[in-house]
């Protein structure tokens, strides 16, 4: 189980509660969770190359969301999500 969360405000939080049921004597499991805000260094890098702050933030958010969208197995759903992700370029979702 893996959870990754992007926190977009000071009030945002991500809660994780891993659960496991064991039905055999030989079970291995692992889990991880990562959460955080946009990387200020990455945003600075984009802004130093002439990209306005809001667009730099949007690019970083889109790249984060894009990784999740790529894992959607249904092609139609994946394409719809990708189109929606790009529709709000320059605006925070």
Task: Report what the structure shows.
- The protein has about 90 residues and is an alpha+beta fold.
- Helix content is about 40%, strand content about 10%.
- The longest helix has 17 residues.
- The protein is extended.
What structural class should be given to the helix and strand makeup? Answer: alpha+beta
Helices, by number, come to: 3
Distance between the termini: 26 Å
Query: Low-confidence runs (pLDDT<50, min 5 residues)?
Result: 89-93
Q: What would the principal axes of the Cα set say about the shape? A: extended
Using only CA atoms, what is the Rg? Answer: 17 Å
How are the SSEs placed, and which strands pair?
Layout: E1 2-6, E2 32-36, H1 40-48, H2 53-69, H3 75-87
Parallel strand pairs: 1-2
Helix pairs in contact: 1-2, 2-3
Structure summary:
The chain is built from 3 helices and 2 strands, in the order ββααα.
